[in-house]
Amino acid sequence: MFIENELKIKLEKKEFEFLKSFTDKQPVVQVNHYFDTLPVLSMMIRIREKNGLFALQFKKRNSFSDGVINSVEKGIQVDEAFFREAVKNGLDKNFVNNCLGCKFDKDLKYLGYAVTERIKFDLFGFQVELDKTTAEGQSDFELEFEGDDEDILKLKKRLEENGIKLVASQPKFQRFLTIRGLI
Fold it and tell me: Which domains, from first to last, does the chain contain?
């Protein structure tokens, strides 16, 4: 389990393309498969598929302020057979609660997936992640940066100096639920 302090900035496509011009790295594709934790929006269960590997992950948001999300994240590796069974039949609450330290009171139904094309690179001296996420044919763009409050403030200043509007981005799970019409 680890605690994450993450800046999430929503980007317009032109801002995304501008920031992407600072690197020649190619994106890595990851697919987030989401499970139903509603009505609670501060907790999320997903299976992340990346480079042929699968991880069952729990994320609980502690706070969200000025584009910075503080959350606790925990996960375990699972195999493809587990993944396929979870997509078909959902996740058993007891298994999830025992493995990830959650307290869900219902089994978790599979909701669908979002595909993220992520580029990790150094921007203005900070290791950032530039994401294009697509769900149900709709794409959005964001910049993510994990760091302490001081580094987050420095990066925000550099972004503003380069014409990037500091619009807070909602968590990917929340955006997925909105696209699906579930919230």
Answer: 2-179 (2.40.320.10)
